[in-house]
Structure formats: structure tokens, C-alpha cells
């Protein structure tokens, strides 16, 4: 069940750190104990990193220390796993995917006074950080600095061989946009593993961020349908059809609504 008091905090005027938002997701799905456990793992990592960085220039040593000394790494073997998207598990294992490790890297940069920003790059989250006036773009999956050629290769991998790198691809992302990216990936992971209740919880959180997004309403409708909540599914499908009548999916959803069982339920 979605813990509404957590997501309701996102509507406050006060800004929240990206790590706080990511931990809110954990609490919404699994309750305060999971969040508390994540907090202990984060504190332990911060303490270890502080010991490694003692007497060094944090801006130059933070990434090497994190990835080489403290064991943070991208999980190649189980990329599409909730273990790599939910921050309590990411912190416990020190493994993740680009967006979850990117959130961790951004948090630690803030914690140790390193200027950094997230980039919602197509297909692969990136982090830009500075050492003085020197700027680097880091792949949070590997901890390596990327040159233009490597960034272009990532772009072509996501958008095709004709894609060309543009300045807007490397613009900084707002915290809520980064959180939405994490939630979308987490939702997709749960759907992949047929964990539809958890995927629905992610959809509900995404709709806290963008309440009138027809595509999120459409996706939630599919999840309601999987959970046999036909009336709720029909309402979301109708919302999408009303707001995106020219979308080819709209005709498919009309047929889908007709096939749903929208009659009153008989109680036995």
C-alpha cells in the first residue's frame, strides 16, 4: 500500500534533496524500517569515504575512492533488477545502474563539497562534476570520465546511428526529473518481473510528480487492468483517449475498455 504521507511531502514548497526523494520511494514501497536500514548503509559509506578522503582534494579523489576503494560498481549481471534501483538495496550492495548510482554520486558530491549536477542523457544517466574550473562528465555506472566520442556512442546506442549530439542532451536535470527517471526504471523492472502491485505504487508516485500526464495515466490503467481493477483501468484509459485522441494507442484502448468487465460485482 502506498504511504501517502511520504509522497505528500513532495508537494511541499520546501525543496528536498535527491537522496531524500529516493529514500522516500523505498519508504513508500516497504515502510520506515527499509528506509532506516538504508540510512545506516548511507552513513557507513559516508564515514568510510571521509576516512579515505582525509587530507586529499575531494574533487579529484572522490570518484576514484568511491569506485576503486569502496567497491561501488555497476551491476552488469543483473541490470534489470529492483536490487539495482531501490536505494536501500543499492546502498547495501554498493551496486546499481546509471541512474541509481548517479543519485548516490550526486549525494556524496554534495556531502563533500564537490560541485556536481545530474544529466538525464538519452538511455544512460550521466553526472557532470567540477574540480575548480575543470569540468568532467562521469559515467556513474563505471566511474569513468567520458570524452565526446564516448558520449556520442552512448547517444547512438540509445537513438540510432543517425543521432547527433546537441547541447540540450547535456543540460542539467532538475531533482524531480531525475526522481521520475528512477521511478520509471523501477516501475519497468517490477513489470518485467510481474510484480504489478509494486509497479502500481511507482505509478502512483509518478503521478504525484506529474498528475495530469496522460501517458502515466495510460500506464497506470494497464496496471489496474492486471490487478483486476477494471473500473479504475477504464477511467485511466478514458483520460488518455480524451487528452491524446490522435495517438494510435487511443483506438486500441477504446477496444480495451469495451472488453473490460465494468458491471457491478456479485458478492457471494
Short description:
The chain is an alpha+beta fold and 268 residues long. The chain contains twelve helices and six strands. The protein has helices spanning 4-8, 18-30, 32-53, 58-69, 87-93, 98-111, 148-159, 175-192, 196-209, 214-226, 230-243, 248-259, and strands at 73-74, 95-96, 116-119, 126-131, 134-139, 144-145.
Number of strands: 6
The computed structural class is alpha+beta
Helix content: 55-70%
In whole angstroms, how far apart are the ends? 26 Å
Main sheet attributes: strand count, strand direction, barrel closure:
4 strands, antiparallel
Gyration radius, in Å: 20 Å
Total domains: 2
Which range does the strand content fall in? 5-15%
Strand order, sheet with most strands: 3-4-5-6
- Topology as H/E string? HHHHEHEHEEEEHHHHHH
| Number of helices in the DSSP assignment | 12
Uncertain spans, ≥5 residues at pLDDT below 50? none
Globally, the shape reads: globular
Mean pLDDT: 92
Domain Protein SirB1 N-terminal: 47-184
Family: Belongs to the UPF0162 family.
Protein name: Protein SirB1 N-terminal domain-containing protein
Pfam families: TPR_9, Transglut_core2
Structure notes:
The strands form 2 sheets. Strands 3-4-5-6 form a 4-stranded antiparallel β-sheet, with helices on one face. Helix 3 packs across helix 5 (87-93). It is built from 12 helices and 6 strands. With 268 residues, the chain is α+β, with helices and mostly antiparallel strands. It is 58% helix and 8% strand. The chain folds into 2 domains: 4-170, no CATH class; 212-259, no CATH class. It has helices at residues 4-8, 18-30, 32-53, 58-69, 87-93, 98-111, 148-159, 175-192, 196-209, 214-226, 230-243, 248-259; strands spanning 73-74, 95-96, 116-119, 126-131, 134-139, 144-145.
